[in-house]
Design brief:
Elements lengths: L5 E7 L5 H9 L16 E4 L7 E5 L11 H11 L10 E7 L3 H12 L5 E6 L1 H6 L3 E2 L1 H8 L3 E3 L8 H13 L18 H15 E2 L6 H10 L4 H42 L4 H18 L2 H17 L1 H15 L7 H6 L4 H7 L6 H10 L9 H11 L4 E2 L3 E2 H25 L21 H35 L16 H13 L6 H7 L8 H9 L5 H11 L2 H13 L4 H11 L2 H29 L2
Parallel strand pairs: 1-3, 1-4, 4-5, 5-7
Antiparallel strand pairs: 2-3, 6-8, 9-10
Helix pairs in contact: 3-7, 9-10, 9-11, 9-17, 10-18, 10-21, 11-18, 14-24, 15-17, 16-17, 16-22, 16-23, 17-23, 18-21, 19-20, 20-21, 23-25, 24-25
Bound molecules: guanosine-5'-triphosphate and magnesium ion (MG).
Guanosine-5'-triphosphate binds next to helix 1 and helix 4.
Amino acid sequence: MSAQPIRYALVGNPNCGKTSIFNRLTGARAKVANYPGVTVERRTGPVGELEHSAHLVDLPGTYSLHVSSLDEKVARDIILGCMPGEAPPDVLIAVVDATNLRLGLRLVMELAELGRPMILALNQADSAAKQGMKIDTEGLAQAIGMPIVETVAIRRNGMQALRTAMEQFANNFSGERSASIDMPERSESIESLYQRIEALIQQFVEAPTARNTWQDTLDRVVMHPVIGFAVLMAILLMIFQAVFAWAAPVMDLIDGSFGALGETVATALPQGILQDFLVNGLIAGVGGVLVFLPQIIILFFFILVLEDSGYLTRAAFLLDRPMRGVGLSGRSFIPLLSSFACAVPGIMATRTVPDPRERLVAIMVAPLMTCSARLPVYTLIIAAFIPEQNVFGFFNLQGLTLFVLYIAGIVSAAAAAWLMRLKQTRDEFPLLLELPSYRIPSLYHLLIGLRERTWVFLRRVGTIILALSIVLWALSSFPAAPLDATRPAIEYSFAGQLGRLMEPLFSPMGFNWQMCIALIPALAAREVAVSALATVYAVGGEAALGSALGASWGLPVALAYLAWFVYAPQCLATIAVVRRETNSRSATTFFTLYLFGLAYLAAVITYQLASWLLG
Ligand SMILES: Nc1nc2c(ncn2[C@@H]2O[C@H](COP(=O)(O)OP(=O)(O)OP(=O)(O)O)[C@@H](O)[C@H]2O)c(=O)[nH]1
Ligand SMILES: [Mg+2]
């Protein structure tokens, strides 16, 4: 047995459960969701509870080694050992979704041609059994010449058997590694391959007797071109209602606690720079953003439920046709959808889009999807300016406004994509997605997912947002106002001067110098716009800030500020990931300029139009 760790790779169709197995075997917490194309990069981790040392690689899903998209290419390159300085994995663990045997076996047969050691993990064995499917795994294993282990990755079932199979391989492993493998020529026609697979299934699988009828009925409703669309809109609207309605009590609690903390510190310390720093810099800055945590949790709760239920792939099919109308396809749906959480993973997920030109356009419009960092800015301004009243009896006007802002992003993305695709020839890549089965979202996944998202947010608050709050406090406190000052102290500070400098550029949209200041730290993290406003208006607490804005802004300005945030690429991380994924400086420059241009235009038009309408 060799001392070097043995390298295992998980290979399989999208959505068959590779990452779930990976997480089980390595104890990692990689993202799992019930739609294809979740994993777009490989991920490696050490496997515990084995007698030999072992590394496991999780790969993006693929249907074939003859690949079409970038994420599939990642998988192929690793399997064949084409990555520079990396030998092919010692063992391929082929993961097959038992309820989708034909498609899974097709890849397994292709992989077998490579002549590498393989273990077959027949995953989702629970769903197969529930459907009444019986598989003679021993017979099948003999016929295809590799050990088969039945697994249920959402529980622990089969993981021990999988480890045993890995031990068995390790005991016979010579330690010899092959160099890269050549891509084999197709040795047989597709037809004959399918015939072989059919024969295997005939011989070893007892097919389910009854189809799952309630799932079919549900599909007919949610994928209906008209009713399905209404269902989608209703779901979205309900989410935004909940963001406002459910979060309020907890937000008041957090707001109140930070207010009390600020007061305690203010009375405990003598007046001076330290007190000012702690109360107005630190506590107000961090508290001002932290207060939005409940809304973010509620938003992600719904996203996670939708992800795990299997509904999202249906939505991708539903939107395939309208998206084709603007030159995108259902393929771009999932990446764009991920951008509602954050544009960074969304842009990375465009690797699943096979057409490179479509992919570029999807990258360009992804940030127009409203990411969760915009939520605090939106809800702060909405709460300050939009009355909390019901329309049509049951819609809350604030929730409705939020919905409209999200829709504005989506419609603009469609328009931008249409324009960018106007001159391009379009290749027709048919949308070949497997519809995953519907599933009641697992509470375990939900809790893990929410914990993860809460962590991400808290880490942001504790690092970048904290740092920016401190810098902003310093900029707005120094230099101090002269003794004979007649205006508020901040107007004499660096921040005040900078704001004044920017003001002429932003005056066509009605922004005052305070609003201009808040735009700068928001470039690094949008949420900071909120605490920056609190700093420049010298008020602490979400409620107090709301009334300060309400008193000084006027509705047209507030709407223009919202419009700015719908479009502006106010996030350096996004610009960096565009640079990395497009690998093109000119594309990145275009991306930044066109979005700032749009933001400027939208804010000016909104301001002028609203001023005119509201007299
Ligand atoms: N019922 C059942 N569901 C499973 C099982 N294994 C995974 N799942 C679910 O299947 C879905 C896909 O799981 P993932 O682990 O993300 O699949 P993947 O193969 O990594 O998918 P991609 O990264 O998109 O290629 C998730 O909703 C899992 O909860 C299983 O054994 N039984
Ligand atoms: Mg995965």
